[in-house]
Amino acid sequence: MRGWVRISSRSVRLPRIAALFLPLLMAGCALFQGSNRSSAPVVSITANPTSVAPGTSATLSVSAINALQVAVTGSDGSTYTFPPDGGTEAINPKNTTTYTATATGKKGTATANVTVTVIPGSVKAVNHVLFLLQENHTFDNYFGMLNPYRKANNFNVGDDGVDYEVDGIDDKLGKISNQDDEGTSYSLFKFKSTCIEDNSSDWLAS
Q1: Does 85 map to a domain?
Q2: Rounded distance, CA 10 to CA 53, Å?
Q3: What is the pTM assigned to this prediction?
Q4: Is residue 123 part of a domain?
Q5: Inside any domain, residue 107
Q6: Where in the sequence is the domain holding 201, given as residue range(s)?
Q7: ∠ at Cα 133 (138, 178), nearest 5°?
Q8: pLDDT tens, 10-66?
Q9: How do strand 97-105 and strand 185-187 relate by DSSP bridges?
Q10: What number of other Cβ atoms are within 10 A of residue 29's Cβ?
Q11: Does the pLDDT value for residue 141 go beyond 80?
């Protein structure tokens, strides 16, 4: 019947307007009960990768909700500011560093942290591996005049300021010689601008 609403096992007569809005009111209450009524900020932070070699970088990713401002501070003293909903930031820590993300909103603050581990002296620090094959040739043949080249380009002075010399043939050109079967003496020499192909490793032939 119109204007009647069954509650449990009893029927109660209500005005028609109440009968119309009561289902809507009950549905609204159920929706309200199932929703997240909290406006407290929430924040999360991740790093990719979480382990790096010295001199390499990682990326921080921050996500936040219900925040008015978001900031990240590192245990190494670094600071970064993000939009209220978060973002990403490239980092290059020199040492193992813990990064703390702080989201500030109308109803307080929330924090989260992640640690980026710097692994010194590991294989991860190697970018390239070079193999040098010297077949039937001596050190002098390849690198005998390396020292003058290093000095001319100031490569002989290390980062520590020490002069590092290569024991080549540059200081022996007039001191060392060899004789062929006929007794002719040959001093050390260096080709300066000649391309030599298929050179023999034999002393007399060369």
Answers
A1: yes
A2: 75
A3: 0.46
A4: no
A5: yes
A6: 129-206
A7: 10
A8: 555 555 555 555 555 555 554 444 444 569 999 999 999 999 988 889 999 999 999
A9: unpaired
A10: 10
A11: no
